[in-house]
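Figure 2 data, in text form.
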Amino acid sequence: MSPRPAERVKLRLFFFITLLWTWTCGFAGAVLFNAGIAAGTFLFYFGAGAPSVTALFMVFITYPRAARRDYFYRCFSFRRMGWKWILWAALFFLLISAAGLWISTGILGYEMPGMDYVHAAARAPYMVLPILLLSLVSGPLNEEFGWRGYALDKLLVRFGFFRASCILGFIWGIWHLPWYFMPGQAQYELLQSSVFEALLFIPSVILLSFVVSFVYLKTDRSILAGALVHLLGNLINSQLLSPYSAGVGTVIRYVKMTFCFALVLYTALSPGFKRELEVHIKTIRTTAVSYTKAQGRR
């Protein structure tokens, strides 16, 4: 059974508001910043929180009370999430960085990344907390209440795991378009060095979407887990290595895409994962129906 037409409209509205808000603020902010107007920076980052803020608005306005409780429980419950799959994700991204550094510096001869955050934390261990908070705010907190928290379940019910992850990954990728025009952003640096590498960012995000969605399902649809996987990917494969050359960044990106593609193949071929997916989709459908019935009886 597909999502009801009203639910499809709500999901489209979520994506429309999110993209319109981010693109309007992001492109306008980049133009102002490049014109030397300081307010451009504020406007740009004001648009970055659109996925989470829009999702929270939709949850409070459209969800019945029981569904809101479930949503926020999945956002903040460490018990529901557990640690097994978060540790798996940390190892996954550590292997990507290790393989990328081995290839880029050991084989291709690129200079070793500066790893400023790692050195800062080694000199002053109390810096670990600010680094983690920066990583949390610079992506997961701004986005994951929306991408995994609001949109993914609805896409899973209608399209299944593969198409849902592709659709969400594509929207997640193009959501970043203003970043290509804002100096200091990774996407901006990609565009300056290579149009091809800049365009490759979008399929790389689509592949990463599979990884985040995979852990989301493995942790009983924990939104918190999705946010932490997002954090770990940014932190381990980018922020902890910074600064690094374009060559190192390119190698790590290709290695990351290879690892993510291997996971995509696993999800396509694993009977066990398909059975788990069917259970989750059935749960999403039945709980949605029960929430609707409960709301109708009020």
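Caption note: Residues 5-296 form one domain.
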